[in-house]
Amino acid sequence: MTELAAQIGPLDGQARGSLYERLARGLRDAIERGVVKPAEALPAERDLATDFAVSRITVRKALDTLVAEGLLIRRHGAGTFVAGRVEKQFAKLSSFTEDMAARGRTVRTEWLLRGEGTVTPDESLMLGLSPGAAVYRFRRIRFADDLPMAIEHSAIPGFALAGAGSVGESLYAALEATDNRPVRALQRLRAVLFTTDQAKLLGIEKGAPGLYIERRGFLEDGRAIEATQSWYRGDAYDFVAELSTR
Ligand code: 16G
Predict the structure, then answer these.
(1) Looking at residue 44, which CATH number applies to its domain?
(2) Which numbered atom of ligand 1 lies nearest the CA of 217?
(3) How many whole angstroms from 196 Cα to the centroid of ligand 1?
(4) Alpha-carbon span 182 to 222, nearest angstrom
(5) How far, in Å, from the CA of 226 to the mean position of ligand 1?
(6) For residue 18, what are the domain limits?
(7) Both 136 and 54 in a single domain?
(8) 35 phi-psi bin (left φ>0, alpha ψ -120 to 50, beta other)
């Protein structure tokens, strides 16, 4: 039996769902727990079928589900691998911490700035605040498994947090604690080349390609709660959107 199957255990012990859903859930958990690491190969389909006493079709369906979620990648002739590049669902309002945890990556933050002040004209426009209003400002380098992934600058209205120090590893966790997590967001994205300073922070070459993303997050009542500028390294992130004609 493969190490992976031993870690997941028998499928009949997990009550809910069809066989392929249970297998997908077991594999998803194993990836999240880091039993198999990014870029590592999964055992061959026929070995998984034997280990879990299910058909090849069931294994294939479970893997298809995780491929569609961006957790696994199929390479022709080589097998199935845990996604190394992060695929992010563009339509889902999730946090960096959640995105990384869902892929079994360990998150770390290097703080460049964690403070408070009075809104600048730009911030007051982005957040819909009156001149003189208080804001928190956060500047961070975000790491996944010690790989620097992004630089993020966030401005948050003063009413939303109980002090700059209340933000630990996750901004959204701190906003959730005060019931101010955004429920809707507008996002704008464009390609950029990293400046010398940014490249230094991310440990990459100056002029390397990146994705610049601006997010404005809103509360249920329509008030803006977040204005974040993110610079993601271009070689580490894929943004995936599902489109439909309806
Ligand atoms: C993501 C968001 C960013 C948000 C952050 C919160 C994008 C492009 N940006 O990086 O707007 O502030 O997550 O993450 O997805 P945190 O809760 O881990 O601090």
Answers:
(1) 1.10.10.10
(2) 11
(3) 23
(4) 10
(5) 10
(6) 3-82
(7) no
(8) alpha
